[in-house]
Design a protein that fits this description.
This protein has helices at about 15-20, 25-45, 60-90, 100-120, 125-140, 140-150, 155-165, 175-180. The protein is mainly α.
C-alpha cells in the first residue's frame, strides 16, 4: 500500500577497505556525517501519513506501524554492525599509555564516552550495548540476519545474546542449536 524506502537495499560497504584507504576514509566519514540526517529526513518524508493519522483506517495503521518497526529493526542491525566493527578497530591514534593494553583500554573508554554523549545515554548503557552488539555480530550470525531483515527487534536479539553470553561453548555448537530454535 505504501511505497516505503527499503532499507535492506542499502549498500553494504567493506569497512576494512575503507580503513585501509587513508584519505578516502576521511571523505567517506564526512559523507556519512552529512548524509545521516538527510537519510533520516528522507525516510520520514516518505511517511506523510504520520502527520495525519486521522486519514488512516485500522488496517493502514497496522501496516504503517509494522513498516516503521521493520525499518527500526533494520536500522538497529546497522548499529550492531557499526559498533561491532568499531570495537574490533579501535582508534589508537592520539592515545598515549605505557603499553598497548592500556592504549586499547583508554581508546575503548574514549569511544564509550563519546557515544554516550552523542546518543544521550549513560556510559554503562553504551558499554553494555557495544559488547552485546559485538556478540550478536560475531557469534550469532543467524540472529543478526533476522535483525538485519527486520524480522526481529533489537530487544529480541539482545535477549538471545544475553542467553548465550555466559555459555561455555568453544565450538559454537550449543550457540548454533539455540539460534536454530529462534
Amino acid at each position: 500500500m505504501f511505497d516505503l524506502l527499503d532499507l535492506t537495499d542499502c549498500v553494504d560497504l567493506d569497512l576494512a577497505e575503507l580503513d585501509d584507504a587513508g584519505g578516502e576514509s576521511d571523505w567517506f566519514t564526512s559523507q556519512v556525517r552529512g548524509g545521516a540526517e538527510s537519510y533520516a529526513a528522507g525516510l520520514m518524508a516518505q511517511l506523510p501519513w504520520l502527520d495525519h493519522p486521522e486519514l488512516l483506517d485500522q488496517d493502514a495503521t497496522v501496516e504503517m506501524a509494522t513498516a516503521i518497526r521493520r525499518a527500526q529493526n533494520v536500522g538497529e542491525a546497522k548499529l550492531v554492525r557499526l559498533f561491532a566493527h568499531r570495537l574490533s578497530h579501535l582508534d589508537l591514534d592520539g592515545v598515549y599509555a605505557d603499553n598497548d593494553q592500556d592504549r586499547a583500554k583508554y581508546a575503548l573508554m574514549s569511544l564509550e564516552d563519546e557515544l554516550a554523549c552523542a546518543l544521550r545515554m549513560s556510559v554503562s548503557t553504551v558499554r553494555s550495548r557495544l559488547h552485546t552488539d559485538e556478540l550478536i555480530y560475531t557469534r550469532l550470525p543467524g540472529t543478526f540476519a533476522l535483525l538485519e531483515r527486520g524480522d526481529i527487534s533489537y530487544l529480541h536479539a539482545r535477549n538471545i545474546a544475553e542467553a548465550v553470553m555466559g555459555l561455555p561453548d568453544p565450538g559454537g555448537t550449543l550457540t548454533a542449536a539455540i539460534e536454530a530454535r529462534v
